[in-house]
Specification:
Elements lengths: L1 H25 L9 H8 L4 H12 L6 E3 L19 E5 L3 E8 L6 H15 L12 E8 L12 E4 L15 E7 H10 L7 H10 L4 H6 L4 H14 L2 H42 L4 H8 L3 H11 L1
Parallel strand pairs: 3-4, 4-6
Antiparallel strand pairs: 1-2, 2-3, 5-6
Helix pairs in contact: 3-8, 5-6, 9-10, 9-11
């Protein structure tokens, strides 16, 4: 009898294990929230609690109420439609205008575009007959996937305002506030120090980077907004049309990144060739030119032949 019961227990355990494996295999793969279109879907939803939780963590301010600006212009109609469209627009506590940009690919136009969006939102508030002092503060937030070379020494979250050159404690106005948040740095900061595990901004970056990772499972036990975001993202991920749109958008982003990086490499090569040509004109030994430009001997020979 005992052997029979033991056999039944083993069968039950095997069935449970088999069910868990099947559930895991059938589990819907979550859409990547770093893709701007998915980001828009997630935080432009009717569930304003998760959007409030995200923005509150990013700017470190308590948000009593939030009004999301949801219209057809917010989400592009085409897969490659990005220019002039912000990813998220909201009014916070009735007196702060906020916009968020999600950037998987960094380009040289990143900072100018961020300032352009700020200026358009700020000036766009002024209607005929209104006074300048009635303009609301505008906060622009840029979440970027990879680090910006010029800002390598900065932490994951940097806050920018207009300050006096010599007395940096003096801020010209609080109407302009820019936040740049780097996901790759945020992940590193979160993992390298246990004190950072409670940092809500870093928690959100962990979620955006990989909502299915083990760390996010732990985060969701305490952070109810991120748990709600995961539930909402899962619902969005079950929709086949959303899957199709996200896949096409991600492909476009990766193709754009490839073109951008190829362009940078070609630009660097062109500059090196120009330098090599000048050095050849000065009769510098080829070995030294190779050391300076890092071009191959064959490449320099081609330049030399063209000169001749």
């Amino acid at each position: 009898m005992k052997e029979k019961n033991k056999e039944n227990e083993i069968k039950t355990e095997n069935k449970i294990e088999e069910k868990n494996i099947n559930n895991k295999n059938n589990k819907v793969k979550l859409l990547n929230p770093k893709i701007d279109i998915v980001f828009q879907m997630l935080f432009s939803s009717q569930n304003t609690d998760i959007t409030k939780g995200l923005i509150s963590a990013l700017i470190d301010k308590k948000i009593e109420n939030i009004e999301l600006e949801i219209n057809k212009q917010l989400i592009g109609n085409k897969i490659d439609d990005k220019v002039g469209i912000v990813d998220l627009r909201a009014r916070l506590n009735n007196n702060v205008e906020c916009e968020i940009e999600m950037q998987m690919v960094y380009s040289k136009n990143f900072i100018p575009r961020l300032l352009y969006y700020w200026s358009k939102i700020y000036s766009g508030q002024l209607k005929k007959g209104n006074k300048y002092n009635g303009l609301n503060k505008v906060v622009c937030i840029a979440i970027i996937n990879e680090d910006i070379k010029e800002f390598e020494e900065l932490k994951a979250h940097s806050k920018w305002q207009i300050r006096e050159e010599e007395n940096v404690t003096k801020i010209l106005t609080d109407k302009l506030e820019l936040h740049i948040i780097t996901i790759s740095k945020a992940i590193k900061e979160y993992k390298e120090d246990n004190k950072n595990k409670e940092n809500r901004l870093l928690q959100w970056m962990m979620f955006l980077n990989d909502p299915e990772c083990v760390e996010v499972d732990e985060i969701m036990k305490e952070n109810k907004e991120i748990k709600e975001a995961e539930v909402t993202l899962r619902k969005l991920s079950e929709d086949e049309e959303n899957q199709r749109i996200a896949e096409l958008r991600e492909k476009h982003i990766l193709d754009t990144q490839d073109i951008y990086e190829t362009g940078l490499e070609e630009g660097e090569k062109t500059e090196k060739r120009k330098i090599a040509k000048k050095l050849l004109d000065k009769n510098m030994p080829i070995e030294q030119i190779i050391e300076i430009t890092e071009l191959t001997k064959e490449e320099i020979s081609k330049i030399q032949n063209k000169n001749n």
